[in-house]
Specification:
One of its GO terms (cellular component) is endoplasmic reticulum membrane. The chain is an alpha+beta fold and 802 residues long. Helix 13 packs parallel to helix 14 (409-419) and helix 17 (584-601) runs parallel beside helix 19 (641-655). The chain binds zinc ion (ZN).
């Protein structure tokens, strides 16, 4: 309920009051929070008034329903006696300049613990900027692959919102940066000033390609890059998007107009589509400088993906100062040349495996990981201190792969994990999975541009918002320990943050978020400020604790920023016993997210160590919350079903693709980890333990969830398994033969009902999911049935087959 309404869920719903309680929960008290959570059941009030904030600078919480005291209508009607007492820091705040009517009821109503404010005056300079998309296209691929990719790009262009600029970089061994634009026939320029028709007739398309042949990292220096392109830095920041009078698509004074076309202009759009249509794959013999075609089959393409990414980022940094930009990398294979090299172009050399990385037995892994990590940090504009921004542009990197081989996602993932972009991995640009995911990427980003958001309540939308800030304040019996997610610490260490840096993203209560969508989730960890096991400690912790999340984000219309405020009140164990407050679903997800976070911060960490740590956590939980006789192993029991369920999930987590690398490539693992870190509790649970739904002719209109056991797979039933990354429709042996034998539709109406219902259920699951799952239809005994069999309880499976 609370997750639906406030988008927040804790592993322990009663906070510890003593040291020993903290130890018993392994010091792991946390929540999964979805800042832009939206549900139809609980519409979020949207307020057009300024938020009322606590005057204590260390706190600056927003007035909320848990306010200690509030006096809005004092009897003597003297302004000075209007006040409210902050429930987080106990500061008494006057409401001197407030008209009581301006305090809208939702702010203090217990039904709206989440509220949203329109901030009219916040960061005005970065409003009204265009949407910017740079396509970064790999040309090392077959003609039919590229044709399919070109179609997808062109379709996406047609669905982009107004005020979108597009640019293009292509790469193989060298990198092509397209300078685009129009030149005017100067003689007619003034005469036809007001007659657009004539101007467009006189202008001609202009295209110049800058070629970069990068061999080492020094060649990627930003200043050198700007010099090569003769970009005048002073032109960078002066452009005022707000005053339309400045906007002249033919004015070449502003550097962006040399490299980006505005889709609002039909001619620009036409030329961009023409440009995409004109792309050709690189000829392998030219790419390899092997015109005799002697070695082609033993070599990979020479591909400079790393340098191409660096040049894209350099370009964005050089020509936009206050904008939101997205780089869309369309990759058809691994980087085989220059900085960011994943594997050499000699096919005899294999691309690194998990085993190679774990044994530190790789030629390139260390250097290339470091290169992409540095590139990711450069997105923060100032590598050392993200607080200092000399450029307010926000760049989001998206990596889309259409190839069967690995392309180096494992090394490149810091780029997406930090910037909040997406990773989509498919076997080919020709697959439906790629085509639909690609379109969905754009639809989900921009769908709300079409509907002007004028309603009082925020409508459900999926768009991403660049340039966000998350701030958390806590009551004085709590400290913030750290955060996992695509957010960067702003190093605002105060009394609210704990002194131990839990996740390298601690020592703060404020984080910058480059790109935030309603799908993005953050794991935040807290420490109860216990003293000892004494009564004093219990008294200090009191009966409850308060946490307030404030998220500022730029609305996707680019016309204003908004502030989302969620305030939650949690009881302590003085009120509810720990045992009864356990949310096993949130607990397993937090545990897995912590594990992934460890893997991401240390690429050489042993996955087995992470699994062992999970086991230790489980054992500790058993020791602290189970009942047992020390002398009798069989005596062990939990008196709360939640702990049993937790044990079952730990079992599945150990076998899931999240922690088990056997059978996965590093790129696949990176994709799973990226998605898991971003997702909310219910999606994460599906990644750990799939659901299996049964459709039977006995009850054709019912969908029955069944256990992941071989015994569940009845021969006459149809099943739908949802494993998040793939959805399987599985036909039992008899069901499959009925399906294929063209039964009479009137006689076997029940069978036709479950045939339709099972497919519809699968479609329903796939429809709203991002990244799109693979869809598999298979029968009992067929090879694809392994997707179901591999998720079943193995003991049970063997028993069945004995
Ligand atoms: Zn306060």
């Amino acid at each position: 309920d609370i997750e639906d309404r406030d988008g927040v869920r804790f592993n322990w719903n009663a906070f510890p009051t003593t040291r020993s309680e903290e130890v018993s929960i392994s010091n792991l008290l946390g929540c999964v929070y979805t800042p832009l959570n939206n549900t139809e059941d609980y519409p979020i009030p949207l307020l057009d008034s300024s938020p009322v904030t606590c005057s204590n600078k260390l706190c600056s919480s927003v007035l909320n329903p848990f306010v200690k005291e509030i006096s809005l209508y004092p009897t003597n009607n003297i302004n000075t006696s209007r006040y409210w007492v902050c429930p987080i820091c106990n500061q008494r705040n006057t409401l001197l300049n407030f008209n009581p009517d301006s305090i809208q009821l939702p702010q203090i109503s217990l039904n709206s613990t989440t509220c949203e404010y329109i901030l009219h005056d916040y960061k005005k300079s970065s409003l009204f900027s265009p949407n910017i998309i740079l396509f970064l296209v790999d040309l090392c691929l077959e003609q039919d692959e590229l044709s399919s990719l070109k179609k997808s790009i062109i379709t996406s262009i047609n669905s982009l919102p107004q005020n979108t600029l597009v640019g293009l970089i292509t790469f193989d061994s060298i990198i092509h940066l397209y300078e685009l634009g129009f030149s005017l026939d100067n003689k007619n320029k003034n005469k036809n000033k007001n007659k657009n028709q004539n101007i467009t007739e006189k202008k001609s398309f202009f295209k110049k390609i800058h070629i970069f042949n990068i061999k080492n990292e020094n060649q990627l220096n930003l200043k050198k890059f700007q010099k090569i392109l003769a970009i005048n830095e002073s032109g960078l920041s002066n452009y005022d998007y707000q005053s339309k009078s400045n906007f002249n698509p033919y004015n070449k004074n502003f550097p962006y107009q040399r490299f980006f076309l505005n889709l609002d202009n039909q001619f620009d759009k036409f030329y961009f589509i023409k440009l995409i249509n004109g792309l050709n794959p690189v000829n392998k013999s030219i790419n390899l400088h092997d015109l005799n075609n002697s070695n082609l089959s033993s070599k990979r393409f020479l591909r400079s993906t790393g340098s191409a990414l660096a040049i894209s980022i350099n370009l964005m940094k050089s020509i936009f100062s206050d904008s939101n930009a997205k780089i869309i990398l369309l990759s058809a294979g691994p980087c085989t040349q220059g900085p960011g090299l994943i594997v050499s172009n000699d096919l005899k050399e294999n691309i690194r495996t998990h085993n190679d990385i774990q044994k530190n037995n790789t030629k390139y892994f260390q250097n290339s990981s470091l290169f992409y990590k540095k590139l990711a940090l450069s997105l923060l504009n100032n590598d050392k201190n993200p607080l200092v921004y000399n450029n307010n542009s926000i760049i989001e990197i998206n990596i889309l792969v259409g190839c069967y081989d690995q392309s180096g996602i494992y090394e490149m993932q810091p780029l997406t994990n930090l910037s909040g972009g997406s990773i989509i991995v498919t076997d080919s640009f020709k697959t439906n999975l790629f085509k639909q995911s690609f379109l969905k990427l754009f639809q989900s980003e921009f769908s709300t541009h079409i509907n002007k958001d004028t309603s009082q309540f925020q409508s459900q939308n999926l768009s991403s918002h660049q340039d966000s800030l998350l701030k958390i304040s806590v009551s004085n019996n709590l400290k913030i320990r750290g955060l996992i997610g695509n957010a960067t610490s702003l190093k605002n260490h105060s009394i609210m943050s704990s002194d131990d840096e839990f996740f390298k993203n601690g020592l703060t209560n404020e984080w910058k978020i480059l790109s935030l969508s309603p799908r993005n989730n953050y794991s935040i960890f807290f420490k109860a400020d216990t003293l000892s096991n004494s009564i004093q400690s219990k008294n200090k912790m009191g009966n409850d604790a308060l946490i307030q999340f404030q998220t500022i984000y730029k609305h996707s219309s680019n016309t204003h920023y908004r502030l989302r405020v969620t305030t939650v009140k949690k009881f302590t164990t003085n009120v509810i016993p720990l045992k009864q407050s356990f949310d096993f679903e949130c607990a397993i997800v937090l545990l897995a997210k912590c594990g992934i976070n460890k893997i991401l911060s240390d690429p050489y960490i042993k996955y087995n160590d992470i699994i062992q740590e999970t086991d230790k956590n489980l054992i500790k939980l058993g020791l602290n919350f189970g009942n047992y006789d020390k002398n009798d192993l069989n005596s062990f029991s939990f008196d709360n079903i939640n702990f049993y369920s937790f044990t079952e999930f730990v079992y599945h987590l150990r076998r899931s693709n999240i922690f088990r690398i056997f059978g996965s490539s590093p790129d696949e693992t990176a994709f799973y980890h990226h998605t898991f870190l971003k997702s909310n509790v219910s999606d994460c649970l599906l990644m750990i333990q799939p659901t299996l739904l049964s459709f039977s002719i006995q009850q054709p209109d019912e969908i029955v969830p069944v256990h992941l056991k071989a015994a569940s797979l009845l021969k006459e039933n149809i099943f739908v398994m949802d494993a998040f990354f793939y959805v399987v429709v599985y036909y039992g042996e008899y069901a499959a033969s009925w399906r294929d034998s063209d039964l009479d539709k009137t006689e076997y109406v029940n069978f036709y009902t479950i045939l339709e219902n099972s497919r519809n259920e699968a479609i329903e699951i796939i429809k709203d999911r991002f990244p799109l799952p693979r869809y598999i239809e298979t029968d009992e005994g067929k090879s694809q049935a392994r997707f179901v069999m591999s998720k079943l309880d193995p003991d049970d499976f063997f028993k069945q087959n004995e």
